[in-house]
């Protein structure tokens, strides 16, 4: 009974409305249509050509017409309460609001938009109304964000989101949203214009995009990323996107996910990026052309493909790095040095995990690399090989002579890959070889760089080389310690060579910090280099003590250098109180060293004087094999050397 | 002193005649290294800190920053750097009418940074040159528009976009950019005027979608030191770049913005900025190391220009010019925010060290061993 009554009322309304429309002077409607067309022309076309001295000329003109239309429609609505008139009035209020906002009258704009929304919210889900309401809500979202109130902005956007969801839930073929100009149309229906089709979908995509931004302003980055994903997804579905941009965006978003341990999501977004790029490449290949625009397209594809490749490589690196941290933190669980910051490897995406491009078939891309944490060498190696392949691809575009900085970054990534692989490798010899590969790659790129232009990059390379040589040294020392046998002369030579190379690189780093004119180390180091510089001294101090030599005079020299290095750190911190907090642990060790080493030096000097009679002619530094062997032949020396090393 | 950050200076101009006639209120206050922007109706004012705040509102006040003062603070270092063989870069940012042109170029009787720089340059050259030490000065002028680079001194190839390259030995350069020899500031002035004629017209149309065009004027100084006995010579090449940054015009703020990301919490209306929003999202670090991810550059050409000039022994300065008038509050705020953000741009080539816990442990043991040894000595 109720149903019948409802239908009866609706029919009555529609009939009354139709009668009202019909009975009044058709001229009024035609007049409104003409006015609306004029407004559209002013806003969509003429305003682009307004002179700089009168930038809002067309917009003000449109506003005048709209105000006129408004008074006409207000009267019509009063008289007949017809939905169509309400909608038309809504469109007018909406446009008045948009113009006000564009002409920087935010308060007036807000008022008009609120008018529009309030007058229409009762009929929100009607096809005549929905587009107007969604546009108005989106615009209010923008307005409030411009006022610096993202929370309020979000309220309106959330409303728009809900509105769309409710409307589409009850969607049927007859309820397609009615575009604005159809409301004003008086003549028979034309072909639906392509850009008014799917306007609802486009408005909703914008709502998603605006929500992504607003959540960013509210520092809810995970939600923001989820909305970015949705925006991308909708672009895919509407087939309205530039493939290269889309792929790049998806790959960039993957970098966000992987930092939050969302490796599945990261991999998925990278796979999608590669899929779209491959598709675009096939399309381009089918096209013919050698003109500039075609070349430019190819170039752009090459460039961004290289970028996506780098994102893939970073994925591999992060997976390895995270896996390593995870394994190490399990080991350290009971150690007092477990850091306060959560090393959590649980994915931090909360309940917004389901971020998949369901319309794409990506398994052949995703199957190439895992999204799970790595536990054993074999798995690490697979990730290594994959990432290495991506880096090789990126390097084809980012060549040393055209993109020097990027090329170096790629080499640095390669070095990191080897470093992480070495962590999973148990055999020490193989570990050493991996670090040696690092050295080879880093040195080969370093020698090609002009430090005048690439000083900061050279510093990074010197530092990493210092650390890498030191890592190899430590592995060698550890191996030697394990065996009870005497170290061979070759082994000793190797140890010294590694130590010297490490020292040399750290020293180059330090030297590069000297003031260009005075050639002195600055009294105050820049905050960016402070810790690395002091640590470099610290490392050098320790390295000098690792150099093996039976010659006590030379030992004395190295010990002196070791002391000097520790002393620099201590002195620097004494002169710069602020520096202490950066190197507090190292400082404590250095202060001890600086107290104790002089005593050891004294002792050694004493011994040298005593033995002065015996070692008259040994002046050469026994860092080459022959000298070491020669010395070995004398009895008793070797055991001294042995003891000194350990 | 080497620094990895941009030095940022802000300058406020005097009232113009129209503003004086209208009795416009001043909303800009400067104290030492702070610039404070007042809002006439709202109580809260906004404070910004910069390396230099040039108060050029009132010529009679004590703290008035004249053209000479501005040059002394910003220009001298740049010139010194150049003679030492290092690069430098000055960025100028400000809406039309904020005094940007006056600061950078000035007029006959009150020369701006560029003429003073060039005059000093040629003066120093005249004083220092000799048989052994010769100098060559060349200039180039290019425009970056929509990520495309155009040579403004070679109108024939104006349509083509030049490629930006980073050579491992030669450093960054623009492939095919013409470099013309000059011997005086007059030469430079003439070339700049010519070049300006070739600037993309669409870029100056305020209502156009992407009215972002940056002009980069470079002065390349080559110093050749010859050993007269052996005839062997060594060369030092340095470049001073003067970048006129676009993007501060009214229309950019109000109309369709193209691919520029708005400041603060403002929503970008067009989906063309999706990439920038995602990049920003990926960029903000979750408290870890920056190098762990890769965020592809969007604004590649300008960023390349900027990043090259940061760090090592290069110097980068940004000068932002603002109006003191209350009616320009929004633009002034926008400029100050932009300058404020520039302060935080750092060349990301920082050195990351591996954790050295193991080494520390080892050394601590050695300390203990030493103590033992000396006890028993």
Automatic annotation (TrEMBL), chain B:
<dbReference type="Pfam" id="PF00225">
    <property type="entry name" value="Kinesin"/>
</dbReference>
<dbReference type="InterPro" id="IPR036961">
    <property type="entry name" value="Kinesin_motor_dom_sf"/>
</dbReference>
<dbReference type="GO" id="GO:0003777">
    <property type="term" value="F:microtubule motor activity"/>
</dbReference>
<dbReference type="InterPro" id="IPR019821">
    <property type="entry name" value="Kinesin_motor_CS"/>
</dbReference>
<protein>
    <recommendedName>
        <fullName>Kinesin-like protein</fullName>
    </recommendedName>
</protein>
<dbReference type="GO" id="GO:0008017">
    <property type="term" value="F:microtubule binding"/>
</dbReference>
<dbReference type="Pfam" id="PF16183">
    <property type="entry name" value="Kinesin_assoc"/>
</dbReference>
<keyword id="KW-0505">Motor protein</keyword>
<dbReference type="GO" id="GO:0007018">
    <property type="term" value="P:microtubule-based movement"/>
</dbReference>
<dbReference type="GO" id="GO:0005524">
    <property type="term" value="F:ATP binding"/>
</dbReference>
<dbReference type="InterPro" id="IPR027417">
    <property type="entry name" value="P-loop_NTPase"/>
</dbReference>
<feature type="binding site">
    <location>
        <begin position="94"/>
        <end position="101"/>
    </location>
    <ligand>
        <name>ATP</name>
    </ligand>
</feature>
<dbReference type="GO" id="GO:0005874">
    <property type="term" value="C:microtubule"/>
</dbReference>
<comment type="similarity">
    <text>Belongs to the TRAFAC class myosin-kinesin ATPase superfamily. Kinesin family.</text>
</comment>
<keyword id="KW-0493">Microtubule</keyword>
<keyword id="KW-0547">Nucleotide-binding</keyword>
<keyword id="KW-0067">ATP-binding</keyword>
<dbReference type="InterPro" id="IPR001752">
    <property type="entry name" value="Kinesin_motor_dom"/>
</dbReference>
<dbReference type="InterPro" id="IPR032405">
    <property type="entry name" value="Kinesin_assoc"/>
</dbReference>
<feature type="domain" description="Kinesin motor">
    <location>
        <begin position="5"/>
        <end position="345"/>
    </location>
</feature>
